[in-house]
Amino acid sequence: MFPVKRQYRHYAIAAGAGLTLALLGRFVFASNLLNDAGGLLMLCFLLLVPMALGAVTAHFTPPSTSKLWRTVLGPVVTVMLFLFTALLFHLEGMICVLIISPLFLLTSWIGAYAYDIITRNKSDNNRTYVVAAFALLPFVLAPLEAQLNTPTDSRRVENTVLIQAPAAVVWQHIIRVPAIQAHDLGASLVDDIGFPRPVEATLSHEGVGGVRRATFERGVEFIETVDLWEPRRRLSFSIVPNTATIPPTTFDEHVTVGGRFFDVLRGTYELQPAGPGRTRLILYSQQRLSTRLNPYAGLWTDWVMSEIQRRILSVIKRRCETALPATAYTRKTPVS
Questions:
Q1: Which of 30, 87, 102, 264 would you call most buried, defined as having the most Cβ atoms within 10 angstroms of its Cβ?
Q2: In order of start, what are the domains of the chain with their CATH numbers?
Q3: Which residues pair with 153 in a beta bridge?
Q4: pLDDT tens for residues 112-142?
């Protein structure tokens, strides 16, 4: 016997059908057949698969059920079931699940509502044809989308902090950043979703051509080559991930820094006078984003970069404001 009451079987069937379709889409779009075209970052997967999930869930939900459940709550249950399954069986990491969940929820509602409108007062056969069209559409359009070029955007993220210390003190704390402890950074959601914390930044020598090595937890390292050195005013450098030190399990393929979808290209510190004994420190970075949904993906990459930069600036601010007086930094800094 089925372990739940008969009237609830339809809900389980509806959620199971939607889950099956979503998992099928996940495996098809992650296959070698479509991976080169963007795979799980294709619009057909990110938008059309959850729309089909919503339509399928609505189709198998009893007509006597309230519209709220059929078009909103039912799709939510199915989407959450799919995301939980992806995490449980390590199909996706927490970062990717967090990023796609708003898209999946929104488009599943659209799919369920569109199905409800289209099939209103229609026969069972017509409803079957409609839900079949929803289910097939992502897979039919995927080869066409694969022919399109992926757009590339350049994005800039900037953070600012006001420091109660002169530029000479601040300068010494940005050219090199000694070891940072976890408690120095404080809690942040970026830690919870799997991004490694910054650890330290070393410098081979002062001046243009100097190489900073910015290390993060779990073996993540970036090689930063200084190409602009203006003591007490500006420090700028190119950024290249040291792929030889980064374990393949640190980042999901879709959020790997230096991968085909995302890269951090440059970083710059600017120091501006902000009154006697005060300095305004600005940190900004430039990133490359190459997805078919750059405006949406950019919201997430901007937030992650901003959060990382904000925490680094907070550490620098705290260290500068508890450092020795500026007279301790009277030695001249070489200029290149």
A1: 264
A2: 6-145 (no CATH), 153-329 (3.30.530.20)
A3: 289
A4: 999 999 999 899 999 999 999 999 999 999 9
